[in-house]
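Open question from group meeting: does this chain pack into something compact, or does most of it stay loose? Before anyone orders reagents, we agreed to write out a predicted structure and look at it together. Recording both the input and the output here so the notebook holds the full record.
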Amino acid sequence: MNARANALLALAAVIALPLAANGDPLSLFQPTQIRAVSVTPADMKAVHALPPLEAFGTIRGTRVPGVDEVASADEAAQDAGFALRLPASVPASVGKDVHYQVTQRARTSFTFSQAKAAGWAREHKVALRPLPSGLNGATYTATVRPIALVTYGTLPKGRQSHRGPRHDVFLAIVQAPLPTVTSSGATLQALTDWFGSQPGIPPRLLAQIKALGDPAQTLPIPVRFNEQTASKIDVDGAQGLAIGDETGIGSAIVWTKNGRLFAVAGTLPQSTILALANNLK
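Structure tokens returned:
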């Protein structure tokens, strides 16, 4: 898989993974706000050390959605099933190299198993918290419709130094309908509360997630505050989240509008990224 496809899957993950911790039963995941969640290297290490989801149940369906590259914005719109919003022009510095990619529709379910969870706990000598009513056998299903990505310029190679000018200027525009999440049995909130009470979850990170409020209305975006800045911002007639600064090392604007999620990101100053986001047609 090429670097651009990997970039699209990473951006798709930013959109889709929060569903593992958000939503109400039999309802549309419809966030009205986007909030930053501060994560540290220690948080990331702790999360990566947690057991796989398969230790507690069965996953069925799509693990990693396929990615199709097409020749034009019209073809991308046809594959995605919605009209793409793109800027009338982009900075000359990103060049004329344009790529259009669309992920395939993905549907993934997870069914919780008390027997599997208990077996994992015995094997690893861990005392799990009691299960809430209805959790055993409950199934949670996320459906992610196609995600469109349009990229301009040269994909960055490796980590960029904070000093000196960039030679690889890159711009990405992501848009997708908001996913849907349904559950049978215990609510998804009950599942996430149970997981959050288990050993190994960083308390500081858990406190931030709980402070977000109604999980069906909020899309959390993890931000490494030791390397990035994040702030609320008005964009495209909505409130979004701005990540980055004026250095040109990397900036992103993320927001939701009319049932769709948008992100404009690249190796450009934040003011330039915001201007592009405000001028999608």
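Observations to bring back to the group:
The mean pLDDT is 79.
The longest helix spans residues 3-16.
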